Structure formats: structure tokens, C-alpha cells
Inverse folding.
């Protein structure tokens, strides 16, 4: 026993915790007493917050996701079609594919995720990476190779942390290499259906003139691999209304300090919606933000009218003044005119350059306005500082309005500026015509200079 006590000093424990001493047990008892007293005080006075407020946009969007099938904006018939595919077509160890097509924001991804979770599926989604990855030979891997590696790894290996019995692959973001080389995508599908063991869902978003479905999944390919196609319609107004009402209650409960969603805001978003639930949620969040009254009065520029491009040009080249004794002011504020056209500064400046001479009277005013517009072009071409756009528009509008003291009265239609691309195309077309004419003329001259040859004599 004494020997064990003597050698206990060089024994190191396998854990980080130190041996418990008598003093530590006393301190622990005191801390437990203090903790119990604090918990009793917090229960009485409720000094511990029960719910954390959320401020990030990603957390808000995560909270707005549907939690049960009745909260989806996809119709019940389409939900039944997806459920039938998950329950009847999907079999463990045998790969099969489903294609979900539809407009942007109609709820395709949310529907497949929620219904797959309800049927005990673990959804593994492919996201096209931005950073570069090296292989074992220190070569940069292409997107197509990384996508193929993802399919093979997701098929062969399973996560230890997953509690789901079955797995489902989800591909929404297709690598760009397959949009140009569809044959490689077809060969990859053929290879996957030979060695793959998991089912896969492809989501094709139809936007504008997009032909992604016809390009990557033609009818003969779908028949060859027995792919199922389910087309999701845009969300109906009633489904959108129910979803936004639920989302509004959620946002008010978790982010009431920064967002206040009212029925008026919901109706305003629904009046401009086109069946896109994602866009409607973002619009509802941004128009429902709480803005302090001081910031609203001082910093937010509230405009009660919409100013078109032609009206803005007319107010600059034909300014109106109000005389008040020895002082005067403009009817339309130059800074407000400039604030309207910050997003299209180049177009606005070109329109002014095309039309400012129609209201000028003297050559001195024309000379000064020309210098102002020249300097505005130089400032507008400087892209390194975004604040220069505001300075350029303010300088140009205010300078032209101040210099044109007595504009020419009368109706002057606003002319559209000529496009530089059209001029360049015309120059290139003329040069091409002259080049071909020179070739044709040179050939015609060479044929004219050839002597007459007797073909019968040559044959004999």
C-alpha cells in the first residue's frame, strides 16, 4: 500500500480532469448553492430571456421554410406524384432518377426536401464549389470531374452521423461544363446507372428562354433510363396568401425588433407576385423592415411621383426658375433629378449631350455646357469610386441648369442618342465591302489581261 502511494506521483491520468480534493468539493458545493439561488431568482423575476432575436437574413429565410406538407405552396396533386415516386420507384441498391421542372420559386426544392424527410430519406445536395481543389497528382480538378467524384462518393459511402435509413441525391446547380458538352453529361449518366446505388433528383428551373430540360434531358434519354418527369406549376394566389400569412407570423415572433409584417404589406407583395414564393418572401422582409423616424425623415428620399427619362432630360435642358425678390430657386431640385438616375447615369448623360443644344441661345453658354459635359464624361468613366456617379450627375445637372438662364421656349422633342455600336458596325461593314470589292476587282482585272488562247490547237 505504501509502495503504491510512493509511485502515484509519476502516474499520469488519461483524462484532463485533475483529482478531486476536499477543497474543490467545498468550492463546488458553494458554487452549486450560488447557482441554485440564481436560478430561483431568475424564475421569480424572469431575468433570463426565453427567446433569442434573429437578425441575419439567412436565419430568417431558414425560419420561413415549411415544416409540414400542408405548408407547401406546391399543389396536393404534385405532392402525391412526388410521394408516389419516393414510395414506389425508389428502391435500395437500384438507381432511379426524377426530374422536377418548373418556374423559379415555385417550391420544387422545398417540396422534395420536406417530403423526403417525411419518408425517412437523407438528402445530399450537390453545390458547385467556387474554390479549386487539387487531386493526388497536384492537378486542378475540373468541375465535371468533381461532380463525377461526388456522385461516386455519395453512392459508395454513407455518413456515420446520419440516422436516416435511405439516401437521396439532389442536383440543382449543374456544372457549366455540361451546358457546352452535353455528350459528357450523357456518358456520366450512363456510367452512374451502371455503378450507382442511390436515387437522384434533378431540378430544372425554367427561366425565360432556358432550354435546360431539352438540352440535358431529351425525351430519348429519359426513355432510355426510365426517368420520371414532374412539372411543378407556379404557386397559386391562395397558396401564396396562406404561406405569406404563416411567414409573417413567424417573422414577427422571431424578429419583431426589426420587422413588422402587416396584412397591408402582404397584400402589397401579393399584388406584384407572379407565383414566385422566394421572391415574395424577400420582398416581404425588406418592405417590412422597421426604419426609425429620424432616419426616415433625414436620409430616406421619399418620392411621391415617378420621373421618367424624357421628363428628367427636359427638366435639365429647359430649367424653370422661381423669382423671389433678388433671389431665385429652381422649380425642380437638381440633386433630386440626379438621384433618380443614379442607376442609369451613362444613358442619362448621353441623352443630355444629344439634346442640350436645342434650348441654348448664346455661344458662351454652349461653350460652358460643353466643358461641363466633357468633365462629366471623364468623371463617369472612373469606375474605382462608386461615389463619383453621384458627384457627376449632380455636377452635370446643376451646371447645365445654372448656365441656361433663358432657355429657348417652345416644344422641342427629345432625341435618342446614336449608339456607338451601330457606328462601329457600319464602319466594319463598309470596310468589309471595300475589301471584297478590291478582291473581286483585282480578279476581274487579271482575267481581262489574259491573252486569247486557241483551245482546239492545244488539244490537237
Amino acid at each position: 500500500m505504501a509502495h503504491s502511494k510512493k509511485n502515484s506521483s509519476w502516474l499520469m491520468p488519461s483524462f484532463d480532469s485533475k483529482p478531486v480534493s476536499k477543497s474543490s468539493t467545498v468550492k463546488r458545493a458553494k458554487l452549486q448553492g450560488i447557482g441554485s439561488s440564481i436560478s430561483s431568482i431568475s424564475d421569480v423575476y424572469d431575468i433570463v430571456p426565453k427567446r433569442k432575436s434573429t437578425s441575419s437574413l439567412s436565419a430568417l429565410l431558414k425560419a420561413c421554410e415549411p415544416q409540414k406538407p400542408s405548408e407547401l405552396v406546391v399543389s396536393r396533386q404534385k405532392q402525391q406524384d412526388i410521394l408516389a415516386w419516393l414510395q414506389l420507384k425508389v428502391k435500395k441498391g437500384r438507381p432511379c432518377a426524377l426530374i422536377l421542372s418548373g418556374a423559379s420559386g415555385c417550391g420544387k426544392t422545398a417540396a422534395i426536401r420536406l417530403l423526403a424527410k417525411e419518408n425517412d430519406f437523407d438528402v445530399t445536395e450537390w453545390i458547385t464549389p467556387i474554390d479549386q481543389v487539387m487531386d493526388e497528382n497536384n492537378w486542378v480538378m475540373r468541375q465535371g470531374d468533381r461532380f463525377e467524384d461526388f456522385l461516386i462518393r455519395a453512392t459508395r459511402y454513407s455518413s456515420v452521423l446520419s440516422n436516416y435509413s435511405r439516401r437521396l441525391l439532389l442536383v440543382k446547380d449543374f456544372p457549366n461544363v455540361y451546358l457546352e458538352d452535353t455528350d459528357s453529361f450523357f456518358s456520366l449518366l450512363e456510367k452512374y446507372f451502371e455503378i450507382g446505388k442511390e436515387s437522384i433528383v434533378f431540378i430544372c428551373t425554367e427561366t425565360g428562354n432556358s432550354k435546360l430540360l431539352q438540352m440535358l434531358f431529351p425525351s430519348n434519354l429519359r426513355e432510355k433510363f426510365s426517368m420520371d418527369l414532374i412539372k411543378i406549376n407556379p404557386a397559386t394566389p391562395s397558396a401564396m396568401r396562406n404561406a405569406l400569412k404563416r411567414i409573417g407570423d413567424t417573422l414577427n415572433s422571431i424578429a419583431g425588433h426589426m420587422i413588422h409584417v402587416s396584412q397591408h404589406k402582404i397584400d402589397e407583395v401579393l399584388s406584384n407576385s407572379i407565383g414566385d414564393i422566394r421572391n415574395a418572401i424577400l420582398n416581404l422582409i425588406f418592405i417590412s423592415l422597421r426604419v426609425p423616424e429620424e432616419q426616415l425623415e433625414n436620409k430616406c428620399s421619399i418620392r411621391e411621383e415617378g420621373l421618367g427619362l424624357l421628363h428628367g432630360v427636359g427638366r435639365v435642358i429647359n430649367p424653370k426658375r422661381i423669382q423671389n425678390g433678388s433671389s431665385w430657386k429652381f422649380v425642380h431640385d437638381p440633386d433630386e433629378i440626379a438621384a433618380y438616375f443614379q442607376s442609369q447615369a451613362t444613358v442619362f448623360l448621353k441623352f443630355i449631350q444629344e439634346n442640350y443644344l436645342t434650348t441654348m441661345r448664346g455661344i458662351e453658354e454652349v461653350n460652358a455646357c460643353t466643358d461641363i459635359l466633357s468633365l462629366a464624361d471623364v468623371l463617369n468613366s472612373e469606375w474605382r469610386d462608386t461615389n463619383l456617379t453621384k458627384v457627376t450627375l449632380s455636377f452635370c445637372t446643376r451646371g447645365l441648369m445654372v448656365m441656361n438662364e433663358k432657355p429657348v421656349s417652345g416644344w422641342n422633342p427629345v432625341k435618342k442618342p446614336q449608339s456607338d455600336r451601330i457606328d462601329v458596325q457600319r464602319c466594319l461593314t463598309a470596310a468589309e465591302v471595300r475589301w471584297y470589292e478590291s478582291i473581286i476587282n483585282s480578279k476581274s482585272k487579271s482575267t481581262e489581261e489574259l491573252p486569247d488562247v486557241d483551245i482546239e490547237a492545244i488539244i490537237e
